[in-house]
Every structure is written in structure tokens, then in C-alpha cells.
Amino acid sequence: MAEVAQNMSQEQVVVVTHDVPQAETIAPVPPTMPVVEKEMPVPVPETEEEPMKPKQVEEAVVETEVLKASGGDDEKTSQLVSFKEESTKVADLLESEKKALREFKQLVQEALNKHEFSALTTPPPAPAKEEEKNDAVVESEEEKKPAQEEETPVVIEDKENVEPQVVAEKEEKKEVAETEVLVNHEKVAAAASDATAETAVDDDGAKTVEAIEETIVAVSSSVASQDETSAQATKEPEGETKAISALDEEAKEVKSETMEVTPEEVSIWGIPLLADDRSDVILLKFLRARDFKVKDAFTMLKNTIRWRKEVGIDELLEQDLGCDDLGKAVFMHGLDKDGHPVCYNVFGEFQNKELYKNSFSNEEKRQRFLRWRIQFLERSIRKLDFSPGGVSTIVQVNDLKNSPGPAKKELRQATRQALQLLQDNYPEFLAKQIFINVPWWYLTVNRMISPFLTQRTRSKFVFAGPSKSAETLTRYIAAEQIPVKYGGLSKDGEFGTADAVTEITVKPSAKHTVEIPVTETCLLTWEMRVMGWDVHYGAEFVPSSEDSYTVIIQKARKVAATEEPVISNSFRVGEPGKVVLTIDNTTSKKKKFLYRLKTKPCSD
């Protein structure tokens, strides 16, 4: 039976499809049959009947183009102006963008070296106070030097008591010496004038003068010696002060060098800044959000890091906010065709009065809702791939069906706050914003929200009315990744997202058949749906042998639009042949037919 499984694998199944035009005998649909008109909602902005005011045209250019393209003309779909996501590889950047990235990284490195991001943990005035404190310390250290110099002589006076005594003795001895000199000069003069003086007297006078001169010289020498001793004692503390000052300066230099060689570590969304090339992807988001203006991007980065510290993002990730009832309003499901995770925001869930009250009835509950929304987004972002060329953005699908509308003031306030937070602190995380089931009033609300969004963000928006929502989603997301409620085939059961879905367009007033050949005994299972149904569906097994009979698996019947969106069937094949699925579209509109199948070996 292993050979059967190999032969019947999905890759080897050859499916033959045919478009069979309706027979000429079939009566055409009456021209007065109001099928299309009834299904098209009157106020839906898909129509072009109501002219749009100049401001509306300016603010909703993308919306108008998308809605026109969803009007059913395949040629217009290819002309749709859509945002193309830029590369996250540095090699693919323009030279000016590379230069901006280098400058941005240099600013971030300097901030890390100076520990500027750590200073953002406290309120803005705190860093200023800290700087003043440091300045005061520096000033006190600088003032300390002259203060020590001034105090040095005082210390010497207290301990040695040398200088005042020396000065006093010097003055006293000078006075005594001068007095003795005057007295001796008078005596010499008196002796010289006496002509009858004897030689002995002259000798005595000469001796007296010599004694006086020796006395004066001795006193002068003693004073000079004591001056040198005092000066030497004074110079010693001055040298000690200079040495201490030099040590302080050296300590400051060592401390400064230590801070430079040990930069702080800062992470954002789990990615350390400047640690590897994933950091470049993060920094490019901030640069692109600010049109590659380096200083503006750096300011945005610092503000984001400050906000994340104030909110306590790391702690928030681990908290239980008790918002399990919001799981149906916001959830992640599948990937788009480019591999982006898809987040669904279902505003209609807030029609539930209890849920609305628990989420928005007062400021405290609105803040709790915002914290839960931030927590949900943070957890989703942590699963992204920030390596260059990886998927680092998200697609958001906003379902406005049965939305409470602009009359709900509390919801409007919370939505506006959420948008502002996302724009300020989560730059370039949206690959696309798809709005489905857009009601007539939404353009008014969109004009209120648009001023809070950049032109770059608005360029990523796609809008679709109720009748084109499923078609719009399948344009960007594969059917196997779209929930059943939004026109896809993704649901719990035998099939998963790995089982690819085939999409076929059935022309108006035509039959379409799908032939699934089988060669060995197996169990063939398939599931299918037609958008909007209102077609006839049948299935049969046609054996290869002419002696066998055709087996009716599903008798042809009309499937109404209100019936179960997905039909599942299975058939045990006991002989070679083919299973034929038939879709008969008798309406004047083309239909999108989705199906997928798998085989399982079975014993006789």
C-alpha cells in the first residue's frame, strides 16, 4: 500500500478542469433581474456616483484606487498602486541611505559609551540634577587646591611656631644693631676730634668698630639662615598638595577611560543595539520613519527607549492582565503571500455590551486595554525575523463589520491613543493595513484619524466594501491561510495551512468541471467553497473501465449563499477512474471557486 500512497500523493494527482458554456437552450437571465443591484450596498464607497470633495480625494487616494480596482475589472487590479516594502539589507540601500545609517550608528555608539540611554530611566529633570552634582564635585575639587595652599602656612605655624618668632627676633636684632652702630660712630667721632688722644685709645676704638661690624654680620647671617629654613618648610606641604591634585586628575582620567571602553547594553524588541546586523534592521525602521533624517531618527529612538522604560515593557510581557475575553477581538492567524504574520482586529466584537463595558467604560479600563494591546503586539513582534532580508513586519486586517461606529466616544478615544502610541514607538512594523467590510461612515472617521498618520503609513492602506472583502483578502493572503469567516478555507479539521488551495474563476453562465484522476485504491477527501455560492454543485466517480458504472457522489443541487460556507466530501476509490466535480454558475456574475484535496491509502 506504500506504492498507493506514493502514486496518489497530491503532487502526482493530475487535475483536469474544463469550462463548459451553458447550452443555447438555457434561457438567459432576464435583463430586469436585479441580482447585482441587490447585492451591492447603496452607500458603500465602491460606487463612483457620489463625487468626493477635494479634501476627501487628497486624503483617500489609496482608498479610491483600491475600491475602483475591486469593482470586478481584472485589468484594473494590475494597475493598483500598492506600497512596496523596501529591502532590509544594507547592500541594497542607496549611498545617501548608507551614509545616514553610518551616522546614526555613530550617534548610537556615542550614546552607549556615555550611558545616555540609562539616564532615560529617570524623569527628564533627574539627569540635569546629576550633572549639576558632578559639576559641584568638580568645582569643590578645584577649590580644594587653593584652599589647601592657604591652609598650609597655618598648619606650620601651629606645629613649629617658627616664622613669627623668626620675624620678631629679626626686627628686634636689627634695631639693636642700628642703635649700637650709631652709638659707636659717635664715640669714634669724639675720639678722632681729641688731638691729644693716645694710641691706646685709637686701638681701643678700632677694636670697638670691628666688634660692632662682627656683631652686625653675625645677626644678618643668623636671620638669613632662619629664613631659608622657613621657606623650605613652607615648600614641603605645597609639593604634597600638588601631588594629591595630580593623583585626583589621574583618577578622573582612568574613570573616564573605563566608561569609554565599557559601553552600556541596550536592547529593543529583544535585539541588542549595535550587537550584530539585526540592529541595522531596527535602526533602518527609525530612519525610514523619519525620512532618513539622522537627528530626528535618533530623537525618536531615545523617546521610544524612554517610553518603553516608563511603561515597563519587559515586565509587561510577563503580566496577566485578565483580558482573555479580548481574544476574539484581536488575534493572529496565518501568513500572507509574502510570509508576513497576519493580525485580525474584529471591531464588531465590541457590540457585546459586557465586553465593551469591561474595556472602555472608564479611563482605568481603557488604559488596561491599551496595555493589553501593547503586550499583544510586543509578543507578536518578538516572533519576527530581524535578520537582513527576513520578515520583520506584520499585516493587519481590520474588520469593520458591525463596528460600534463613531458614536462610541470611548472606543474612539482608545483607538486614537493606540494609533498614536503605535506611530510614535513602533515605526515601520506594518507591511499593509487592510480594511474590510468598510461601512459608509468610515471615510469620515478616516479623515479624523489621518492627521495622526504619516503619508508613508497611509500609503500602505487598502479598503474594501462588504461585497469585495473576501476577494480583496485573497489578493494578498492565500485561501488556506484565511479563516473561513473571511472567505478562506482555514479551519480546524483534516486540512491545515500546509495543504494548498487551488483558486479558479468560474465565468458567468458557464459550467466548470474539475477532474481528479485516481489509479489505485485509496480514500479521496476534498473540501471546497464558492464565494457567495448561488451555484449548482455535483460530484461523481467515472471509472476507466467501460464495463463499470458511473457512481453519483453528490447529486447536483443548488447551494444558496446562506448555506454552510465550506463543503467537505470523501469517496473510497476501488478501481482506476476519476472523480469529477462540477460547478454550474447560472448567474450573470463570475464566481471564485476554491478547493483542495488529499488521498489516503486504504486496504481492500
Write the layout of secondary structure elements.
Layout: H1 2-7, E1 16-21, H2 35-39, H3 54-59, H4 61-69, H5 74-78, H6 95-113, H7 116-119, H8 125-159, H9 163-193, H10 199-261, E2 267-268, E3 271-272, H11 278-289, H12 294-311, H13 313-316, E4 330-335, E5 341-346, H14 353-360, H15 363-381, E6 394-399, H16 409-425, E7 430-436, H17 442-449, H18 455-458, E8 461-463, H19 469-476, E9 502-506, E10 510-518, E11 522-530, E12 535-543, E13 551-559, E14 567-573, E15 577-585, E16 591-601
Parallel strand pairs: 5-6, 6-7, 7-8
Antiparallel strand pairs: 1-10, 2-3, 4-5, 9-16, 10-15, 11-14, 11-16, 12-13, 12-15
Helix pairs in contact: 6-11, 6-12, 8-10, 9-10, 11-12, 15-16
What does this structure look like?
Among the domains are: 87-117 and 264-311, Helicase, Ruva Protein, domain 3 (Orthogonal Bundle), CATH 1.10.8; 319-477, CRAL-TRIO lipid binding domain (Phosphatidylinositol Transfer Protein Sec14p), CATH 3.40.525.10; 502-601, GOLD domain (Jelly Rolls), CATH 2.60.120. 47% of the residues lie in helices and 18% in strands. It is built from 19 helices and 16 strands. It has a five-stranded antiparallel beta sheet with strand order 1-10-15-12-13, with no helix packed on it. The longest helix is centred in the middle third of the chain and has 63 residues, at 199-261.
